[in-house]
Amino acid sequence: MFSSLLIANRGEIACRIIRTARQMGIRTVAVYSDADARALHVRQADEAVHIGPSPARESYLVGEKIIAAAKASGAEAIHPGYGFLSENADFARAVIAAGLIWVGPRPESIEAMGLKDAAKKLMAEAGVPVTPGYMGENQDPDFLAGQAAAIGYPVLIKAVAGGGGKGMRRVDAAEDFADALASCQREAAASFGNAHVLIEKYILSPRHIEVQVFGDSHGNVVHLFERDCSLQRRHQKVIEEAPAPGMDEATRTELCAAAVRAAKAVDYEGAGTIEFIADASQGLRADRIWFMEMNTRLQVEHPVTEEITGVDLVEWQLRVASGEPLPLQQDELSINGWAMEARLYAEDPAKGFLPSVGRLEHFYLHDEERIETGVEPGDFISPFYDPMIAKIVTRGADREEARLALMRTISKSFAAPIRTNSGFLFACLASPTFASGQITTGFIGESQDSLMPPTKPSPAATNQAAAALLAARSEFGGIDSENAPAGLQNFRLNAPFDEQLRMESRGVVVLGNAAQSAGSFPETGPFYTALADGAVVVTEFGEAFVFIAPPAIRSTGHHSAHDGDILSPMPGKVIAVEVAQGQAVTKGQKLLTLEAMKMEHTLTAPFDGTVAELNAEPGAQVQVEALLARIEVSE
Fold first, then answer.
1. Which of 430, 449, 437, 435 shows the shortest CA–CA distance to 503?
2. What is the rounded CA–CA span in Å between residue 591 and residue 500?
3. What is the CATH number assigned to the segment(s) 106-131+205-336?
């Protein structure tokens, strides 16, 4: 076994690899771009090497820089993670030529499966069922239109070098074929430098089923059963699970045997995934499941396979790359329970799922379950890379237990002020269609409007926030319960975050700079309540809303020595000061404006008096509960 490893990747997968390598006693080396100089994977590795500017094409995609970093740091092996250079055969060859160990399949295997048309021909020769279609060299538009007609509409046009949903078009009628073909070819040429396409039958009730395979250099190949990745948005996976719902043992046996044949056909070594498309109109049947493509790398969703098999796939990768045989043979592998994974993205569902970038001021993931992440509170979500910030993985004795655990975990997690898709994830999980296990790849496209998050909390959620603010009065400017505000209008909604979901209140969790727990709350509804840096976060059906209270609320006319203390309700920046020290003020008069969590918060005088102390000036950064001003009662 080698003693040092460079991870040619970033984010949660880099952190995931570092964790296993450390457990195995292997020294880890991270690489980072300008944008990732303070990233979590950099902080966790034993050593880190800068490889260039923020854009991936100038850093993470430059193989020469990564190999140079390995040489400079003394690393013996390179693990590519997934994405970036993980399926680049030329990079794999360069790593090997440099005298380093490549933690991945042989370059020839990557090439054999790299082009979809060539891979399908190879699979057909190996006895692996492939989707009916045309995979030839003739790219004449009229000829391809004839092939589409022969296959029968609807058809799918796919770039042979495609991936990630790019270079792919569904065509339902002959009159639409020419425009769709031209569009697909333009996108394929721009994205992959290759305009060639293949035509295949479009499956009307499609499910995406894939099989995890693993080979070693001693000729052993095993499968680790299947995963179902049918819940997709624009061909991007959203929630994955293992095993596949509705899969009987006979079908599983045939499917997994076909996957092993596929891997053996390319002398496969390391971790790989054989992806199949299933026509589920009559349930899962072996004669209606066809090969789509092979991913010659570790998959994003590999944790669900780990959870049901008890295997650490990264450890297997490292052992196989060092020349060891597979740790287990086929008869030693079995399915135990059910697992699901949700991909938490920094994106705004209400704005077409556009990435949401900025500083992650608040980030809490309920850690009763497995969490894979590459960020911590205070980290910056960059516009340069994929916006996935975490994978939430749950396991149960059966599918329903795993599903409910994932809903519960999502509903007790939140991020701010960036937007995330947490509410969207929850709504998907809560849908009767998903609960039934009858999801197809078209579900989100057909149901997206019903899965969109609300923009406002319900009155019940606002009541929950009010109760939390009152219970935490010592932390929120001295609100006392005897003189509590009567109406919800006394509480300002600071910023709405993600979407409609369902939740359980388990009490108050203290985050960030909050000093102490304010106690627990009864289970009065679908809420989870948390304190974070001078604010109350209420999640309703998984959607997070942040509330703050006015700095002081009094109605008795009697004021103690500290009633006039104007405290910062949360960390922020003073953007305006409206008064001067010694100035007389009246109750409700604007004193200063604070910018926090991308919102402006006006702090006002709690009663008539004089500005006895002023500690704020425009541009100043202030922490939670900082004394900004003090108002004394006028004599």
1. 430
2. 36
3. 3.30.470.20
Q: Which helix (H) or strand (E) holds 277?
A: strand 270-279
Residue 222 to residues 125, 212, 238, 244, 611, Cα–Cα distance (Å): 20, 9, 27, 18, 75
Token output for 10: 């970033």
CA 143-149-151 angle, to 5 degrees, is 105
Q: 111: which residues sit within 8 A by CB, 6+ positions away?
A: 89
Range 142-146 average pLDDT: 95
Write out the CATH class of domain 565-633.
mainly beta
**Every domain of the chain and the residues it spans:** 4-103, 106-131+205-336, 135-201, 459-548, 565-633
Helix, strand or coil, per DSSP, at residue 348: strand
Please list the alpha-helical segments (H only) found in 266-345: 302-309, 313-321
- Average pLDDT of the residues in 403-416: 87
Q: How far is CA 610 from CA 304, 557, 586, 604, in A?
A: 62, 16, 8, 12
Strands (E) across 302-387 are located at: 338-345, 347-348, 354-355, 358-359, 362-364, 370-373, 380-381
Q: Quick one: which of 65, 51, 70, 62 has its CA closest to 7?
A: 70
Task: Determine the average pLDDT of the residues in 104-114.
Answer: 94
Residue pair 151/194 in contact (Cβ under 8 Å)? The answer is no
The rounded mean pLDDT for the chain is 84
- How many angstroms separate the Cα of 459 from the Cα of each of 350, 393, 540? 21, 32, 11
Half-sphere exposure of 314 (CA within 13 A, CB side): 24
Task: Give Dmax over CA atoms of the chain in angstroms.
Answer: 96
pLDDT at 199: 94
Mean pLDDT of 140-148: 95
How crowded is residue 213: how many other Cβ atoms within 10 Å of its Cβ?
Answer: 23
pLDDT digits (tens, 9 = 90+) for 167-177: 889 999 999 99
Distance between CA atoms of residues 171 and 151, nearest Å: 12
Which residue among 207, 252, 297, 403 is the active-site one? 297
Strands (E), 388-475: 388-396, 414-416
Give bridge partners of residue 201 from the DSSP assignment: 155
Closest to 155 (Cα-Cα) out of 174, 130, 140: 174
Can you give the pTM of this predicted structure?
Answer: 0.76
d(CA 78, CA 64): 13
- Break the chain down into helix, strand, coil percent, rounded to 5: 30, 30, 40
Please identify, in words, the CATH class of the domain defined by 4-103: alpha beta
Report the distance separating Cα 568 and Cα 284, nearest Å. 59
Instruction: Flag the least confident range among 144-153, 317-326, 529-538.
Output: 529-538
Rounded distance, CA 51 to CA 60, Å?
7
Q: Does residue 53 have a pLDDT over 60?
A: yes
- Which CATH number is associated with domain 135-201? 3.30.1490.20
Terminal Cα-to-Cα distance of the chain (whole angstroms): 80
Closest CA to 415 of 380, 455, 456, 451: 380
The amino acid present at 473, given as its one-letter code, is R
- Pairing relation of β-strands 599-604 and 621-622? unpaired
| Residues 6+ away with beta carbon under 8 Å from 109 | 266, 267, 268, 269, 272, 296
- Which residues in 571-606 are b (16+ Cβ under 10 Å) and which e? bbebeebebeeeeebeeebebbbbebbebebebbbb
For range 253-259, the mean pLDDT: 97
pLDDT (tens digit per residue) in 383-400 = 899 999 999 999 999 999
Whether 297 sits among the annotated catalytic residues: the reply is yes
Measured CA to CA, the distance from residue 80 to residue 87 in angstroms comes to: 9
pLDDT digits (tens, 9 = 90+) for 476-515: 333 333 333 333 223 333 333 222 212 222 223 322 222 2
